[in-house]
Amino acid sequence: MSAPTVDTELVIGICGQATARSGTGTVVEAARDPLDGSTWVRMSSWPHAREALTALNSHGISGHDLEDSRLHVTGWDVRLLHRRLGVLLSGVDDLTSEWDATAEMVCYHHDRRVAAGITPDPAEVLADVEAAMRTCLPIPHRAPRVQDVDSLLQLIAAAEDAYQQLIAEHIDYAEGILNDHIARQRHGAA
Description:
The N and C termini lie far apart (72 Å). The protein is built from six helices and four strands; from the N terminus they run αββαββαααα. 61% of the residues lie in helices and 12% in strands.
């Protein structure tokens, strides 16, 4: 039984985004195999192929890399999708209850700038908080054991929407905490 195929443009986008900090042109070419519907991707180097494969796997897409900088992307993988959904559900659970950690983090990012003699820009402080939240990968929960790829992708989309909404709410909360923190420091200095 073969894995349900993935759109080639999605594969190219994930590979390019995973290697974007290395510059442009890391995805040299991509083509769909007409025999089995898989996608072959040639990357500019073997390390870029490894980075791209890691990103594909984290999206729930299976494949393997060859030593000549090529990836053979075979399609959606139910086990990888379960892991992706589990990570998202864990992130949603964490953000639902971790408001104090957000307050602590925003004060930390502000205070470390003050300690370094830098006048903190609230937008930069909030950007640091958001970046920290987005790069954190929680330990995955056990995801529902749905075997249908389309159903899993729908659950993932719903969990991603909830996760993005919670991050936005936490950034709004962090902004309020930061404003209060700055006001308390100004009041204490006066």
